[in-house]
Description:
Keywords: Signal. With about 150 residues, this protein is α+β, with helices and mostly antiparallel strands. It contains 2 helices and 8 strands. It has helices at about 1-15, 100-110; strands at about 30-40, 55-60, 65, 70-80, 85-90, 115-120, 125-130, 140-145. The chain is globular, with a radius of gyration of 18 Å.
Amino acid sequence: MRKACLSTLTATLLLSGCAPAAQDTPLSGQTWQVVALHTSPEVPGALPADAAGKAQLRVSGSSLTATTGCAPLRAKVELTAETLEFEQVEVGDTGECFGGSRYVHNSLTGLFEPGARFDIRMFGEREALLTRAGEELERPSIRMMAL
């Protein structure tokens, strides 16, 4: 009996070492605040003053929960150490939303769509840049700070 338990424990430990743990991915388990949003070369990336601090996201496993500054957003995602890919996205009701908050909401919901993939670049442990994957020279990006 003892030998069988040791064999099972050994096999479990060996197999668990094969899959990356969720905490091994740089974005997982923290709340991230959107601090800049670059959608095109013609538009500055700084957030409008009335939208600053309102857009946040958090990834846990294959789930992303966020607020766009106007509405809640939930998504099923695939997160690796280098990429974040959106599989399913649900956006809640925006209600009364206007100005800079509406701009940020429209920009984020336009970027966070099923099939969208972002390259992740970390600047230390508390700053991240999500850049839309693709061959374009001027790709949209989202700069975030961990809270």
